[in-house]
Amino acid sequence: MIDTTHRKPRKLVPFSTNHSHRSSTRSSRAYTVSSHLRAFFQCLLVMALLASCSNRTELNDSVAQLTFKTLSGEPLKVSEVTGPLLINFWSTSCTICVAEMPDMARLYGDYADKGLELVAVAMAYDPPNHVLEMAERRSFPFPVALDIGGEAVDAFGDIKGTPTSYLLDSDGKLVKRYVGAIPFDGLREELDELFGIS
Prior knowledge:
Blueprint: H1 15-52, E1 67-70, E2 75-77, E3 85-90, H2 95-99, H3 101-111, E4 117-122, H4 128-138, E5 144-146, H5 151-156, E6 164-168, E7 174-179, H6 184-195
Parallel strand pairs: 3-4, 4-5
Antiparallel strand pairs: 1-2, 1-5, 3-6, 6-7
C-alpha cells in the first residue's frame, strides 16, 4: 500500500488565470504593433510636409535653360538672372493664387531694388486672354508669363496644382519650394538671408 499521508497537495492554477495571461500577452503585442504602425505613418506625414517646403533640392538641368514668354513681349531667361528668382505657378481660376497676388506685389516692391526677380507663370490651361485681362486690371508690377506649351511645368516636373512656387538663389539652385499659399514671413526671412540683410 502506498502511503499518501505526507504527500504535498498539488497547487492548481485556474484555467481562467492562464487564459487571461495569454490574452494580456496578445493585447500587449497588438498594442506594440499598432504603436509601430502609428509611428510609421506619422513619419510618412512629416516627410510629406517637409517635402512640400523642401530646402536646397536639386533641380532638373532644363530649368536653367528656360526662357519665359512674358506678356510684355520681353523674354526672361533663367540663365541670365543674376539675383534670387521667385517663380510662381498660378492660374486665374485659382482662388489662393489670386488672393496672394497683393502680397506678391508688396514683396516685389520691397526686394526688386535689391536684385529679386519674380515671374508669375500662368498654367497652360489658363486662357491667355484671362491672364492678360487680370494682369492689366490688377496692375501686377512683376513679369507675368504664359506657359502655353507646358515647357516650364515639364522642366520642374512635379507641379501637382497651383499655387506652386520656387525660390532660386543667384546661382540658379533651389532654396525652397512652396506648395500652396506662400508663408510670406518665412519667404522674407529666406530673402533677407540671401541678400545678407540682418
